[in-house]
Design goal:
By secondary structure, the chain is an alpha/beta fold. The strands form two sheets. It has a four-stranded mixed beta sheet with strand order 3-4-5-6, covered by helices on one side. Strands 1-2 form a two-stranded antiparallel sheet. α2 packs across α3. The protein is globular.
């Protein structure tokens, strides 16, 4: 398998914001975070990796996957482990792929087209849209609980 699991503090640069929030003086949240990194973006890898985590000695109660593909694999792993989503495990993906909607997966939607357009414009030396920040939004579905 091409993945690694680490405890808070020994993760790739992309996780820095999460850990800055965890170590913020006002302590924005108190949960211990386990960061699991997958080198590939395939559902089978997500399923195998999530199953390993879910059957481990300290299984997670939430998984925020870096893609819908990995999250859908994790959803299959949860079913194999006999877990009820979202009661036993909450799960989110990223991309808002068609398969996410079909599976009821909560996800973070983004416009790959808008991002690609801006990348092409930058490569061609042309100005981008008003903002280089792209509109992302949460699409809440059946794999997450309502806030309490």
């Amino acid at each position: 398998m091409s993945h690694q699991v680490s405890r808070t503090g020994n993760e790739p640069l992309r996780s820095r914001g999460l850990h800055e929030a965890q170590n913020h003086p006002k302590r924005l949240f108190s949960a211990e975070i386990t960061t699991a990194t997958s080198a590939v973006n395939r559902g089978g890898e997500g399923e195998a990796f999530a199953l390993e985590l879910l059957l481990g000695t300290e299984p997670p109660d939430a998984i925020a996957a870096m893609s819908d593909e990995l999250a859908l694999g994790a959803l299959r792993a949860a079913a194999r482990a006999g877990l009820r989503v979202p009661d036993d495990l909450t799960l989110t993906g990223w991309d808002d792929a068609d398969a996410a909607a079909d599976a009821g997966l909560t996800t973070l939607a983004q416009s790959l087209r808008d991002q690609g357009t801006d990348c092409a414009r930058v490569a061609l030396g042309l100005p981008t849209a008003d903002s280089t920040r792209h509109r992302w939004h949460v699409v809440a579905r059946a794999t997450t609980r309502q806030p309490r």
